[in-house]
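TL;DR need structure tokens for one chain.
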Amino acid sequence: MHTEATRTDIFLHAIWNALGGGEKPAVTFVGEGELPSAFAVSDLAAGATGAAALAVAELIGVATGHTPSVSVDRRLASLWFGTSIRPEGWARPSLWDAIAGNYAASDGWIRLHTNAPHHQAAALAVLGVDADKDAVRAAVACWKADDLEAAIVGNGGCAARMRTQAEWAEHPQGKAVAAEPLAWWETNGAAAAPDDLARDPARPLAGVRVLDLTRVLAGPAATRFLAGFGADVLRIDPPTWDEPAIVPEMTLGKRCARLDLRAPENRDHLLGLLAEADVVVHGYRSDALERLGLGAEARRLARPGIVDVSLDAYGWTGPWAARRGFDSLVQMSAGIAEEGMRRYGTDRPTPLPVQAIDHATGCIMAAAAVRGLTQRLRSGVGMRARVSLARTAALLTGVDAPGETHAFPALQPSDFDDRIEATPWGPARRLRPAVAIENVPMRWERAANALGSSPARW
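>> reply
TL;DR here they are.
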């Protein structure tokens, strides 16, 4: 059994090495305790957060000749993997819509992810019922879980049967994911002009333009991290997209605009934005941008030397490479929810206490983006990185779970920044950062704001 510190270091080293890090990473981890889980969630939170912070320190070191020290508070890192915002006098909507959840099929459990209206419509059409929880429950009970999963996914919806870890290991997609690196990493052509980064070591990403084409939840977590060190993040969403429970959490530090990329003139506008960007982060399914004429080669030609970081749910190879997916679905597929159920002796799927796969993947994406900037500063060459939720899940399940643990102390008012964040929904307070980089405060210059609240321009 690994010790607590060693587990955290294992995650840190795995991420750093996957992103081409050279020297042994040096991060100080402070604090004790765990989120209650069948897996090493708090170690993953601390290790992944440490990797992202280490990348920022490395960039400062290359730019200035002095690499600052890095420490991570494992308790605060774990809390950020849950929620960072505390509304003052208002409440966020429920994270889940009325239909989303776990259901008992005739031969096992299945999860329906129906937060997006078109995903809900796809599932209900297969089941042949209206949006009524009891009706859905009765309809699901008549299906075999595998058959229902295939039918909903085939109809453009999102669902995942609960599998054991052993079943996932033998599944064609599980085998494909196990053979993939934690992060694909490759050069992406020479930059058109030399970089001038980290001019102010206290705001090392000031002036870095990040084009954010991501939604729920890993990608937005990555770009939120980048904004915390000064990056100019411009998020682009489709005209009707919304995620009301998540927007106050994930738009911190960003400007948010809308473009309908189905319109040729808007695709041209996006390419214009890309031409002036330093980093592009996207979470579309692996084939979606290609179909829009915005594939990897088009992005590279629009901005030679771009740092290009992309996210996929179920991996980049195998039969499910283009499948829609989310953290909660990957937990079902990869055996995490079943292991939690078995470990805790419950009678239903028992997921992680937070959406740790999403957040850890977000940290990996942030680290990849900053390491890409560092590489470009050193050599004038851009980079591409690809990560997936399923591969991050494999990282988590591949490390021994904690044995005897003790829970973190309860949330305290002192865990939050003293400043009031003036959001469009009302005042709020934000958790203090989990990251401490020597003489480099992590702070956000913009409050969270609504999708579509800014024009689509730098």
